[in-house]
Amino acid sequence: LRLFQKFDNFRILVCGGDGSVGWVLSEIDKLSLHKQASCQLGVLPLGTGNDLARVLGWGGSCDDDTQLPQILEKLERASTKMLDR
């Protein structure tokens, strides 16, 4: 994540569940990356609960790796939503 300090705009894809997303968001806060122009986070729901991914419309799981190219294209075109945590 420290590499992203050199960029104004970036996207991070978290492959995991709610715990993984929470951990990455905490690390982003520690590094003050959230203060940059555009820090966006995507979620590939690979965890057990995946409540955040479900609420954001990404579904509750991603267990079909043959769909990965389509999922990545969808993430690339996705709109952003503000998150208060």
UniProtKB/TrEMBL annotation:
InterPro entries: ATP-NAD_kinase_N, DGK, Diacylglycerol_kinase_cat_dom, NAD/diacylglycerol_kinase_sf
Keyword entries, A-Z: Kinase, Transferase
A Pfam family hit: DAGK_cat
GO MF assignments: ATP-dependent diacylglycerol kinase activity
Entry's Gene Ontology BP terms: signal transduction
Keyword Transferase appears in the UniProt entry: yes
Domain DAGKc: from-to ranges: 1-85
Keyword Cell wall biogenesis/degradation: no
GO CC terms, sorted: plasma membrane
Signal peptide: none
PROSITE patterns: DAGK
Protein name: DGKH kinase
